[in-house]
Write a structure and sequence with these properties.
- One of its GO terms (biological process) is DNA replication.
- It catalyses: 8-oxo-dGTP + H2O = 8-oxo-dGMP + diphosphate + H(+); 8-oxo-GTP + H2O = 8-oxo-GMP + diphosphate + H(+).
- This is 8-oxo-dGTP diphosphatase.
- InterPro entries: MutT-like, Nudix_hydrolase, NUDIX_hydrolase-like_dom_sf, NUDIX_hydrolase_dom.
- The protein is an alpha+beta fold.
- The protein has one domain: Nucleoside Triphosphate Pyrophosphohydrolase, CATH 3.90.79.
- About 15% of the residues lie in helices and about 30% in strands.
- It is built from 2 helices and 7 strands.
- The strands form 2 sheets. It has a 4-stranded mixed β-sheet, sandwiched between helices. Strands 3-2-7 form a 3-stranded antiparallel β-sheet, with no helix packed on it.
- Strand 5 and strand 6 (about 85-95) form a beta hairpin.
- The longest helix is centred in the middle third of the chain and has 13 residues, at about 50-65.
């Protein structure tokens, strides 16, 4: 039975979509959890942060881009409560940002249409998020 003594871990991610409809994925560094897998960029919500503020901060830290919180549109979520701590991953769509995304905290960046991303190996919570993204035809 999963532990319920800890508050859920809230994580945020972005489906950054360019003018051609392609979505950005980043490859996790080898040596980290899920190393070598492809994920939506994002990270943990820190105490006192809203999900949108946390995501804007994470995108600045990971990709060197600036995103207005108002440009982050809630898209879907996935949960994993099988481990020691429940993880809730919120996915936002984003079509506007300033700067050119650079892999500051990832091995590589990759752009493709949502339905063409299904071949990428991904962490377990990113898989249902990609399916949600495809279902919404973003």
């Amino acid at each position: 039975m999963p532990s319920t003594s800890h508050a859920p871990l809230l994580v945020v991610a972005a489906a950054l979509q360019d003018a051609r409809g392609r979505v950005l994925m980043q490859q996790r560094p080898v040596g980290k959890a899920h190393g070598g897998l492809w994920e939506f960029p994002g990270g943990k919500v820190e105490p006192g942060e809203t999900p949108a503020r946390a995501l804007a901060r994470e995108l600045r830290e990971e990709l060197a881009i600036d995103v207005a919180e108002d440009d982050l549109i809630p898209l879907g979520f996935a949960t994993d409560d099988a481990g020691e701590r429940c993880v809730i991953l919120l996915l936002f769509s984003c079509r506007r940002w300033s700067g050119d995304p650079r892999a500051l905290d990832a091995c590589e960046l990759y752009w493709d249409l949502p339905h063409d991303l299904t071949h990428l190996p991904m962490p377990p919570l990113d898989i249902p998020l990609l399916a949600q993204l495809i279902d919404r035809h973003l």
